[in-house]
Each structure stands twice: as structure tokens, then as C-alpha cells.
Amino acid sequence: MKRILSLALALAPLSAWATPDPADWPAVVEDAKGQTVHWHAWGGSTATNDFIAWVGERLEDDYDITLNHVKLESTADAVTRVLTEKSAGQDDDGAVDLIWINGANFAAMKDADLLFGPFAEALPNWQLADTENKTLQHDFTVPAEGYESPWAMAQVVFMHDTADLPERLGSMEALLDWAREHPGRFTYPQPPDFLGTTFLKQALVDLSDNADALSKPVNEDNYQEVTAPLWAFLEELTPLLWREGRAYPATGPRQLQLMNDDEIDLAISFSPGEASTAIANYQLPESVRTFVLDKGTIGNASFVAIPFNSGSKAASMVVANFLMSPEAQLRAQDPDVLGYGTVLDLNALSVQDRAAFRTLDLGIATLTPEELGPVQPEPHPSWMTRISEDWVARYGVGN
After folding, report:
1. Model pTM?
2. Is there a contact between 98 and 305 (Cβ–Cβ < 8 Å)?
3. pLDDT class for 38, splitting at 50, 70, 90?
4. Which of 61, 295, 335, 371 is the most exposed place for a label (fewest CB within 10 A)?
């Protein structure tokens, strides 16, 4: 019996026992056949959920991969699941195969050795990525080092209903001036919601003159000094918000609903094409447009990462590679689908693919890349965590 088992092991393909090597892509694709990828990703947007469902259909047709979208309210839930499994010694076939991730959650997983890799820069479609002009190799100042693969670009824009707010606002000071004259017509999602915390970061970046401090981990020696402009701004703004700051929309989609119901005139988004997509889906009035601040706005990439104990690493890499394909990137940029920015360098694409991107109608409310202007770097992820906690302590409602 032992000799038979030894012979079976000897005859088994090496890929059955070895970690898949992204440098041997044909072997990865072969290993991926028949695997199921449990992709833990935010599930709060119908448009995003529909896009992920389309990705699953394409992967099933072309690669014999089953994609299961595990809808999250918070990415931290998936991170906690992987950490719990590691603590319990579950080093294989974990519940999470792929995570939509960035910022503090990526930093936490990387620091705790919870990630498989490096793999991203060995994926075939990485050669099409725009690594010179887009933040694809750093995540909130943390080096990605191939442990996560980019699939979408985001930049803060402000959506305004031109029927009530005709002109753009160039700064947070201008936003506060406008709110004084139009109380109750602005709000933002309640932190620690990601988009709500993004508003706090954007305000801090715009109001602060200490970019160097924000690029480093929070330092208690200067934390109060660096954040003082933010808290002073919020002290004035909060009573001028929708419902006088005593209630907040729970999510970005709920914020859009308030604008569609003409309860607010101004909202924040981390997707330059979201307004056009929402207009096309009858979720916003056609009078909505977008603007950025004079100093520019925060921008970053969305990534996917593979936990160390995924049982479908090969298929997860195929998913990550497909998300960077011109086909998937073009669909994601279409405002009728998602309206996300592409991670690709258009000059690296084929003539046909390049033409498809350049003739794509970005939508009535979407700024051109030139109009989006300079991208402000994300603060170190520790700032997001700390100011969110402080906001909850100061202004949190419904806790």
C-alpha cells in the first residue's frame, strides 16, 4: 500500500502540491480550472455587484473558474476572518480567496504576514499598467511590493446639483462659506464608513500645510497640531449639515438618494464617473455635475489581494489578471457600468483597444483627465484610522 501511495504521489502533477508560480502563467491557468474563488468585496452598490457578476460569467466561460462574490459591509470583516484562521492554525483552504482591499486593511494584512505573494507584477497584464503616472505600487504610502494587484483608479470629486448650486467650490473654506448660506444642504456618510472618512481626510489635506507629517504614521507629538484645522472646520460645519449633523447617511448610495430626493445639493464621491452612472440609472437628476478643489483631490487605486491560506491561489491570480485586462478595464470605465478610472497605460495597448478607450463616452457629468487635475496623495493609513476614531468620539451618532 505504501509503495502504491508513493507511486501515486510521484506521478501526481507538481502543481497539486506546490504553490502556483505566476511566472509560469500557462501552469497557473491550468491549475485554476475548476477552482472556486470566494471574492470578499464590498456589496453596497448594485452597479458594482453587477460588474462582479459579469466578471464571474467571463471567468466561467473562458477559464472554468467559479467566482463567488461574498458581499461585505466592511473589508475589515474579511481581514479579521483571515487573522482568526491563522491564529487557529488553518493554513490551507481558508474561507477568503480574494479581497478588494486598500489602505489600512492592506497595511494590517501585510504587517501580519497574511498575504500570498508577491504575484502582481508577474501577471501578464501588469505590462499594460501605468506605473509611472498612477499610484499602483504604493497603497496609502505603503509599498505594495507585488502583494496586491490594482484594478481601478479613484479620485475624490464633489457632486453638485447645478439647479441649486451652479458653481464649483474651490476649497474646504469655500464649502464652509457656502454651507453658512445654505444650511442643511450638505452631508457626508457617517464615519467609519470609508467614504465618510475619506471626506475627513480630504478636508485635512486641503486645510493642512503639513503634507510631510501626513505622509508618515501618526505621531502623538504633533497629532493635535496637525489635525487642529480639521476639528476647527468641523466645529463650524457640523451644525450646518443636513439634519444639523444629528444624523448622517450610512453609505454613499444613501447619500445619492438624499440628493435625488432634493434633500441635499452637494455630496462627495471617490469615483469621477459615479455621477454620470447614477444619472444614467435615474439615481440622480440630470442637472448634477462634478468638480474638484483648486489644490486637487485625493486619489488612489483599488487593489485585490490573496490571503496566505487561500485554497484557490491560481484561480485568484487569474481573476486579478482578468481585472487588469483591457476588456474588463474598458467595461469598468464605462459610466453606464461603473465609471471607474483605468489602471492601464493607453499607449501600451493595441491600436484597437486604445481606440475603444478614447472613443468611450465618459458621461455628461464626468470630468476629463485634464479637468481632474493634480492628484493629492493619500495620507498614511494610520491617519484614516485615528481621525475616524476621533470623529466618532466627537460627533458619532447612532452608536
Report:
1. 0.75
2. yes
3. very high
4. 61
